[in-house]
Amino acid sequence: MKIVGISGSPRKEKNTEFLVKLALESIKEKEPSVETVFIPLSEKYFFGCLSCGYCHEHYGCSQKDDLYPVLEQLKDETIKGLIIGSPVYMGGMSSQTKAFLDRTVLFRRNQFKFQHLLGGALATGGSRNGGQELVLQNIHASLMIHNMIIVPDSAPTSHFGGAVWERVPGGMENDPIALETVKNLGYNMASLIQKMFLK
């Protein structure tokens, strides 16, 4: 079985990608049998949903752009969960993250293919209280539209997901509480995988 991590940052090998990879590593640490797949949206050129209606009639997207192969990859029925990471831009998720989530409507319109998959969220912002929790909740809302099972970070933090302030003095590596929320999201998802799929 697989868990897929999506980095919705337009920047390659920056904070969001680091955090998504950290969450995936935490899943593997707790449950080595799970295959993790990392998909960055950086350096991909694509638009949001055009509301063309194509996916009402077809299990696919009409836009054959850089996001098309990503959407095709997500048809893999061994995928049991998604972790979506986004930077905070203007108090909300990145346009790349929003466009990606909107384009996943094709799975909803084709027998709710994402139904009962696990879903987690990560957000990193330049300000301590710059909108991370709002971004997490907005990602959760999109996942709930798919009837996915929302996974928070686990105890002792146990809030909405991984929330990080990237400008902490010395770098976010010096913010152990924030990084703990990211790791705990991975650990919590691994625990749910064990209970739901590995009984």
Descriptive tags:
7-stranded mixed beta sheet; alpha/beta; Rossmann fold; 199 residues; 38% helix; 7 strands
Write a compact overview of the structure shown.
The chain has 199 residues and is an alpha/beta fold. It contains 7 helices and 7 strands. Strands 1, 2, 3, 4, 5, 6 and 7 form a 7-stranded mixed beta sheet that branches.
Number of strands: 7
What is the CATH first-level class name? Alpha Beta
Rg measurement, Å: 16 Å
DSSP helical segment count: 7
Distance between the termini: 14 Å
Range of helix content: 25-40%
Give the ordered list of helices and strands.
EHEHHEEHHEHEEH
Low-confidence runs of at least 5 consecutive residues? none
CATH superfamily: Flavodoxin domain
Strand fraction: 15-25%
The rough form would be described as globular
Average pLDDT, all residues: 94
Largest sheet: 7 strands, mixed
CATH second-level architecture: 3-Layer(aba) Sandwich
User: Under CATH, the topology is which?
Assistant: Rossmann fold
Number of domains: 1
Structural class: alpha/beta
What does this structure look like?
With 199 residues, this protein is of the alpha/beta class. The chain has a single domain, classed as Rossmann fold (3-Layer(aba) Sandwich), CATH 3.40.50.360. It contains 7 helices and 7 strands. The protein has helices spanning 15-30, 54-57, 68-73, 95-103, 105-108, 132-145, 176-197, and strands spanning 2-7, 35-40, 79-89, 92-93, 118-125, 149-150, 162-165. The protein is globular. The mean pLDDT is 94.
